Structures are given as C-alpha cells and as structure tokens.
Amino acid sequence: MPILVNTLNYHDGSSTESKTLDETYAALKERDDVNAFVGISDPTNDDMHALTSHFGMNELAVEDSTEGHQRAKLDRYGHTYFLVLRPAVYLDKEEEIHFGEIHLFMGENFMVAIVKDYLRKESNVKALLEDIASKIENLKTPWDMVHAALDSVVDRYFPVVEGLENDSDEIEDALFSPMPTDTAGVSQRIYALLNEIADFKRACKPLLGMLDTLMERIRATADTDNPEDKQEAIHDVRQFRDVKDHAIQINDRIDDLRSTLQNALEVNSILVAEQQNDDMKRISAWAAILVAPTIIGSIYGMNFENMPELQWPWGYPASLLLMVAVSTILYLVFKRKNWM
C-alpha cells in the first residue's frame, strides 16, 4: 500500500509529515487540535479493514471504494462523507482526456484519499494530493478539507477545457482552409472529440449537485445563535460557492464546445456534400462533352447506303471538325457555368 501523502495539520497553522499510519492514529487519539490527511493507493482488503476500524468509515462506502469504477458523487453516512472525484489530464498529442478516480473519506478530523487510477502517471496524482495537502492548513472544520479537494480538482479542469478548445479551433481552421482538407479525417476527429467531451461532462456535471448539498449541510449544521459559528458557516459557504462558480464555468464551456463541434460536424457534412456535387458536375460535363462526338460517330457508322455525306470528298474532315466544334462549344458553356 504505497502512502502518497500522510500529514498532520494543527489548528495553529503548523503542519508535519507523519512517518507511519500508526503515528497518525495515535496523534488523532491524543490531541483534539489536529487534522489528518492521508493519501494512499491500491490498498488491500486488510488495509481497508484497518482504515475502517481507525477512522470509522461506513461499510457501504468502503465496499464502493473497493469495487472502484464509480461515478462522481457525494454520499453522507452520519458524521462522515464519501466523495468520488474524477480528476483529469488532457493529452494534447493523442487528443484524449485521461481520468483518474479518487475516493475521499472525510470525518470530523481526517480525510483519507484512496487513489484508484493514477491519471496516467503516479506523479500526476501525487502532485494533486500534495496540492490538496498544501491547502489544508489551519483547519477548524472538516468542510475546509472537502473544499481543498474540490478546489484542486476543479482548478485542474481548466487546462483540460483549454486543450479541447484549442483542438476545436484547429478543426474550424481546417474546415475553412483554402487548402484541400481530408474531410473524412476531420469527421473522425470531430466525432472522437465529442466522445471525449461527453466523458468529461459526466465527470464535471455531478459536482454542481455535490456542492449544493455541501452548502445545504453547512447551513443546516451551523449554530445560528453563536455569532462565531455563524460567521464560520458563512465563510465556508462562500468558499464552496466560489468552487461552484468555477464548476459552472467549466460546464458552460463544455456545453459551448459540444455545440461548436456539433455545428462543425454539420458544416463538414455540408462541405462534403458540396464537394460531391462539384464532382458530379464535372463528371456530367465531361460526359456531355464526350457524348457529342460519340453520337456523330455512331450516326455515320450505321452503314446505310443512302447517306450523301459518305460520298462527299470533305465528309470525313467535316465530321471531325463538327465533333471538335461541338465539344469545344460544350466545354466553353460548362466552363462559364463553373462546372469545369
């Protein structure tokens, strides 16, 4: 069970790294002014049993975490919360979004992050957990832990959206480029990006409901008769509202991207139809040009005896000249109509 992060954060603002989980368990039992943040990956069943017994995690939440492949969600079990977050990184070269999966168990003085997917590289998710740990300082409520986690994940969604937007701009440039475009390749690229956006939307959309639920819980549990507690609740709600504003921005930009790419797909289909129409015009024009001399040749190839032109000394060059003249006239007509 690799331990990625194991820190003890005290209410006076100080923070220390805990060497072992046993040391973390002991600190939480001995002191009331400390919060623990533990980030681990690939825990075994025995590891999960130990974490459950020390932190009091709900069995249903532990079962979901053990199975993995969860959607982004928030579940509440008494005084503990179970969150599933889907951090993401954008691979610009492959034009793919790689999603991670982090399960957060949050209690009154702890937050345990269980990494189910490494975001392509272990260093990526470790950097995310360290960023969360750096924000969890001088904590007084468990809401600050959740805010730090959600804020870090949502902030990392912005580079993903920017990468998608850059690819969308490249597609638009390719569609209206004066140079010949591989329309089939553009269609495949648009369709692939739409699939990536759909997956991204499934990771981002639940955050809005999760944040609303958390703000409702903060308001419900706040002691309105205590001015300090009331002020603290207002501060927490403002923090989550700021994260929600970022999440709304992300979702709006995703919707705009999806609409833009769908329009691009329609435009590409129109361009393909226009190209096919132009090709059919050229084929029809050349067919008409070639059919004129064919008709003339077929008439004089019927071998009837009473055909005056057959006995005319200039009949052969005259028929050739007629073929050339008719073909030239048709060519000029089609050229003027931009069929050639």
Automatic annotation (TrEMBL):
It is found in: Cell membrane. Mediates influx of magnesium ions. Alternates between open and closed states. Activated by low cytoplasmic Mg(2+) levels. Inactive when cytoplasmic Mg(2+) levels are high. Keywords: Cell membrane, Ion transport, Magnesium, Membrane, Transmembrane, Transmembrane helix, Transport. It is a multi-pass membrane protein. It comes from the Bacteria. Belongs to the CorA metal ion transporter (MIT) (TC 1.A.35) family. One of its GO terms (molecular function) is magnesium ion binding. It holds the Pfam family CorA. This is Magnesium and cobalt transport protein CorA. InterPro entries: CorA_cytoplasmic_dom, CorA_TM1_TM2, MgTranspt_CorA/ZnTranspt_ZntB. GO terms for cellular component: plasma membrane. The chain crosses the membrane at residues 283-302, 314-334. It catalyses: Mg(2+)(in) = Mg(2+)(out). Coiled coil: none annotated. PANTHER family: CORA FAMILY METAL ION TRANSPORTER (EUROFUNG).
